[in-house]
Fold this sequence. Notes:
By secondary structure, the protein is α+β, with helices and mostly antiparallel strands. Helices cover 39% and strands 17% of the residues.
Amino acid sequence: MKKRLALLAAGLLSMAGGASAATATIPDIPYTRFQLPNGLTVIVHEDHKAPVVAVSIWYHVGSADEPTGKTGFAHLFEHLMFSGSENHKGTYFQPFEVAGATDMNGTTWFDRTNYFETVPTTALDMALWMESDRMGHLLGAIGQKELDTQRGVVQNEKRQGENEPYGRVDENVLANVYPANHPYHHDTIGSMADLDAASLADVKQWFHDYYGAANTTLVLAGDITLEQAKAKAQKYFGDIPAGPPVPRQQPWVVPLGADTRGVQHDQVAQTRITRTWAVPQLGTDDAVQLDLATTVLGGGKTSRLYQRLVYQDKLADDVSVGISPFALSSRVQLSVDVKQGVDPAKVEAAIADVWNDFLAKGPTADELERAKVANLAGFVRGLEKVGGFGGKAVILAEGQVYRNDPEGYKKDLERSQQATPASVLAASKKWLGKGSYTLTIMPAAPGFDPAAEDKAVVGLPKAEGRPAPVMPAAKSYTAGTSQVDRAKGVPPVASFPDLSFPKLQRGKLKNGIEVVLAERHTVPVTQVQILFDAGYAADQGRKLGTASFTSTLLNESTSDLDSVEVARRKERLGAIIGSNCSLDTCAVALNALNAELVPSLALFADVVRHPAFKADDIERVRGQWIAGIAQEKTDPTGLALRTLPPLLYGKQHAYGIPFTGSGTEKAIASLTAEDLKAFQRDYLRPDNARILVAGDTTLDAILPQLDAVFGDWTPPPSAKPTKNVGTVAAQPKPRVFLINRTDAPQSLILAGLLAPSTKAKDALDLGIANGAFGGTFTSRLNMNLREEKRWAYGAQSMLSDAQGQRPMLFYAPVQTDKTAESAQEILKEARAVVGPKPLTDSEIAKIRAQRVRALPGSYETTSAVLAAMSGIVIYDRPDDYVQTLKARIDAVNRTSAEAALSAVMHPDSLTWVIVGDLRKIEAPVRALNLGPIQVIDGDGEPVKSSK
């Protein structure tokens, strides 16, 4: 292997000189584990880089523990845990929002239910009080009203998932891969019938059976000491009963005895083939070997299946293979998006050819080494966060809950590094040569009833030999006496830590390109972003989609390297290079390991400066792109984002385009290499670029390295174009546009207005007002449609950033039979907030406090710092913008917020786009008299109304 992974730093990853990835030192996450007398397991990891603590609580119960007739119950209960507790009535989110918590949520999966938040260090007592109150004092706060509310929310979450393309696939796969008596036979969200049948007695029994202290792991990671953790854990959780012993589900791997098949129809634009194998559970050597095998088979452009199906035979637009590791049994799944007009049988024949060759010969040494580098580099990058959906708290919790070993990750990395082509081949032959389930998802014909097909999916019969659940060894747990007077309520958070944000440094390359640097010495990684003043808005006067398409082609071939070699070199370096556009800018970014920074920068510069725009690459990406546009038109949100902006801005405006940036099929079909070269010449040029750098480097170090690869880059002789982002007059009256999506289980409501630029002086005032109206969980809009009415999984209003007028959007996926009523409630809330029910001082104070107090936790990662730097550059903000945010947010009051919102919020000038089954929603929506109604198609063109 020509290049090797070398990460040098601070207890994360190091390598002896000359070593390959296979002999790298394993990353270390130092921790201490202890147990309270009541059986609660506590894990502490100290990381003092930011004044925040990640709190992660894992209950060892999930959908695998649900008895027959109670599917979806674990997830339903997770929602109930956010309804309040005996000593804190009302939504659980409220005190956390005020305290500035970040990364706050809860999730349920087969084998666990977890709850997490990252809070300022000074808010840790509040967080632990809240978590312990619902663990030990919940049932008195849960009644029939709370159960009915969360049942409705969960059912709308299920509808929302099924309303997305391929949204019913997982349920089908599980039913046909695992026997009927396997704990993984049903999906986590469960069935509508079982959710309807859940009773209050069921809820209370579930809490009693599974939510005891001895079935729980608490991880505290961040700015905390072991002594503090021990005292606080005992104080807040020590008096909670251990709970009854919980029977442990045992691993049960049941490979299919033969290959089986199924066909599913859905509102999709493209045939997709999935093939699934049941394989060993996480923590096993075979699971690690199969992880490497799946990377070689389908882990990206250089993988064998991608090479064969996409590059060579041109049968597919995309292909991937991966392993999903779980505690009882894992799944390996292949997924292929079949190119339009191609016979799926030809695709399957090519897959079989590649698969059989791999099972005969195994991976090459180079393939395996690149897979190891990619896996290890990805793991190291994930160590920058202390919590959230990933990060160090999750790694430690997973190891403890699933394996009774917080360092289980080390064993997996060791196995991965020691893997050989022979060991990967042996595991692959053992498991990937067994029976599998192939599901072909095909576009549904008009009038197709998905409910009828779902009833036909019965899955496999029961299998013999299921291991009986094992009761843990008998232990004597003793709960202590309470050290907390809970009658006093939630502990107040009296002070908050100050924000720490690196001072921006500026320099210039020899050719005048400006470089902006933020030093961040947390992990041995440097991130570089070249920012061009371009974006979707630069499509004006060109074929729609040109900006994004050109940006994507940058990441293909260069003058000297074909696209596969570019991808291989990135893998060998452990580097990530990507390119994309937004509304106003295009960017090319590098995330490089410091030990390979020089060669990574050389490859990065080659990609930026010397794109080849080869015909083969253009045609391959064009096919994928057009297929992607077709997929957007089968997705309710994609449809709305394609159609609403041209209605808001007008088709002659630079922003009057699909906000997906993908353009139109006709435009993409006509793009030529000359079109791409012209865009590059006009916009992707050194005199239109700024370089942003964040990470483990200094200005003195990075400037010469950048000069070496970009310093001689000269602009073309032609002048830079000027984008025409004009001002659009407000709509004088409301308009309603309906898009039909027959048999949709939900309707998608997207309504919009135009607001001033992100650069506007009152942008902060408007943002805070929007937070109170619809931008947070406890906002008026969400509490109405989700918590009070139970018509939506969530509803929100949002402000998209833009250099010109930006859109203010109201977004609500709602159940079909409440479409008109939901639109009416959105309109009612919009009218009230600028009419009889203006925002209050307390509402503004809540959002203001949340924004300020969230600052210390908002810039924990280098990526977050880089994003803030981008905002400073794009919107002409001062270099100390982040450091001075607190003072400017504190200056926002109800009067200024109300004025900013009133200038934008014109409820009777809303432009509505509603996507749903018009047979069911058109008449009720018309009866609302929201405004003139027009039925349009996925391109925004008028169609004949059904009325």
